[in-house]
Specification:
It comes from Irpex rosettiformis. This is Major facilitator superfamily domain-containing protein. With about 525 residues, the protein is mainly α. Helix content is about 70%, strand content about 0%. The two termini are about 30 Å apart.
Length: about 525
């Protein structure tokens, strides 16, 4: 302030300062930014959110450092990707097309032996090597789903399946065919990585429904691969089978690139060997997982026993069906696959233990029908085929849903352990079932399945539905049938809701610069 102002009396000085303040705050002297320069809360919020998102360690823009991930599929911690019905169906279709690699060769073994000019013993090693490769992939590759991001892992394995399949129809050497078959089997574990991913992406109240669709695709691939392969090879060259398989897998690879959401790794601090060690540890220390494994082992042995011996039963003196009719008979099992959505919704609403008990008892009844009338009337065989497919799927979805609730960060490893038990059950059902059928006939083979399923019922009943995680035997926590969300699931729902709300606030609650100016003027006036 000037020297003249220092000479004024205190009262005049105060009046002068007051006038300056009023003058400086008058509407005419306020320097308002131009509309084009007015700051926008919405814009700044979105820019800040985008900056934070780009800086987030789980926000990845490229797979393999060069393959761009579409923006709508990138993992966004503020707005998780929605797991819609189309993505769920894609998971199921991908499972169908990829698991079919394991079964294309079975109906065409005779044609393969003629084409390669080798004995039946030589060519019979092909399905064995495919299954051996698949077992290796289950043990060594599928646990990677708990260690790395699953989108690039799934894309890589699908690409390997496509690339190796090219060699099958063009080779003329049986050894090359066998080597390629082994590695294709190892890479065909994609469905076992998709299943835990579906459980992670789906809301807890829809987890069983999502799993049922993927598992239905898996069963459909097992059933339809033999039928498609047999029909094509019956009217054209066996090489066309693998050209068709290549085309289907290529389409799946493209669809997965365009639709498969990215999801961050769940155990960043662990090593590969640590993952394998923990998987072995889970196999002997988790009561619920061990219970599910024992049930899967015996149940899958029954399922495989039925389908393997069914060929002998339908082609034998009792029915005398042709090979083509026997192959088409596998389509009857697709009726059970069609019940997947209903199964998933039911399991979502009840405690999985009760769904597993019902499915085991129902399957036991259908195997009883096979024991009594399987070799008497073809209608009994049709009924049993539909029933065991439907309730085998119900049982598998129930057990998987239950086990996946133990630890969200270990779902791939636990799923790998369960699938290994299923694989061992297939081996047991094929070898033991065939021996019993050849030695004692169809009724003895059916009785074997009834006995194995009685074991399944015993295993499910020794441990109740609401036992604590490390309770081995007994019943505790009541007998409530309706599912009540666990604390972990409820917390997950709350976190997802908070993320969605924050995203909506960041994009929807901002105001334009002109709106802010109008509000300021109204307040001042």
């Amino acid at each position: 302030m000037s020297r003249a102002a220092d000479d004024l009396p205190a009262q005049e000085l105060d009046t002068s300062c007051t006038k300056e303040k009023i003058s400086s705050h008058s509407p005419d002297n306020i320097q308002r930014p131009l509309p084009s320069q007015a700051p926008s809360i919405a814009t700044s919020t979105i820019e800040s959110t985008q900056h934070d998102k780009n800086a987030h360690p789980d926000y990845v823009k490229r797979d393999f450092y060069f393959l761009v991930i579409p923006k709508y599929l990138r993992y966004d911690p503020d707005g998780p990707t929605k797991f819609d019905i189309f993505t769920n169906i894609l998971f199921g279709v991908a499972s169908t097309c990829i698991v079919a690699n394991l079964y294309y060769c079975q109906p065409i073994l005779i044609k393969l032996s003629q084409s390669f000019d080798v004995s039946y013993d030589e060519v019979s090693r092909i399905p064995t090597l495919i299954q051996a490769g698949y077992a290796s992939g289950l043990l060594l590759l599928s646990p990677l789903g708990d260690l790395v991001r699953r989108r690039p892992l799934i894309l890589l394995l699908t690409f390997i399946c496509c690339a190796l399949t090219i060699g099958l129809p063009i080779t003329s050497n049986v050894v090359a065919f066998e080597v390629l078959s082994f590695f294709i089997g190892a890479a065909s574990v994609v469905p076992q990585i998709l299943m835990p991913l579906a459980a992670d992406l789906a809301p807890p109240h829809r987890r069983a429904s999502a799993l049922s669709v993927v598992f239905s695709g898996l069963l459909l691939g097992i059933l339809i691969a033999r039928v498609v392969s047999g029909i094509i090879a019956n009217f054209a060259s066996w090489r066309i089978v693998y050209w068709v398989a290549l085309g289907l897998q290529s389409c799946i690879l493209l669809l997965l690139y365009l639709k498969l959401p990215d999801y961050p790794a769940k155990n960043k601090g662990m090593t590969y060997w640590g993952i394998l060690f923990s998987m072995a540890k889970f196999a002997v220390t988790e009561p619920l997982l061990i219970q599910a494994n024992l049930i899967n082992l015996a149940s899958m042995a029954c399922f495989t026993n039925f389908w393997v011996t069914l060929t002998f039963l339908l082609g034998g003196p009792l029915y005398n069906y042709s090979t083509l009719v026997i192959g088409l008979f596998g389509l009857v099992g697709m009726a059970g696959v069609a019940g997947a959505p209903i199964i998933g919704r039911i399991v979502d609403r009840v405690v999985p233990w009760f769904a597993a008990v019902i499915s085991i008892i129902a399957s036991l009844g259908f195997y009883g029908i096979q024991l009594g009338a399987g070799g008497v009337n073809i209608a009994a065989v049709v009924i049993v085929t539909i029933g065991i497919d439907l309730f085998r799927q119900t049982q598998q979805v129930s057990l998987t849903t239950n086990v996946f609730g133990l630890d969200a960060k270990a779902r791939s490893r636990m799923n790998a352990v369960m699938i290994i038990s299923i694989f061992l059950g297939q081996i047991m059902g094929t070898s033991v079932g065939t021996s019993v059928f050849n030695a004692h006939g169809w009724r003895a083979a059916a009785a074997l399945s009834v006995g194995w399923h009685g074991f399944c019922l015993l295993m499910i009943l020794v441990r109740g539905p609401h036992c604590q995680r490390y309770t081995w035997f007994g019943y505790e926590g009541g007998y409530s049938v309706k599912k009540i969300a666990t604390h972990q699931e409820s917390q997950g729902d709350k976190e997802k809701q908070v993320q969605v709300t924050q995203a909506e606030e960041a994009t929807g609650s901002g105001e334009s610069g002109e709106g802010i100016n109008d509000r300021d003027e109204a307040e001042k006036s």
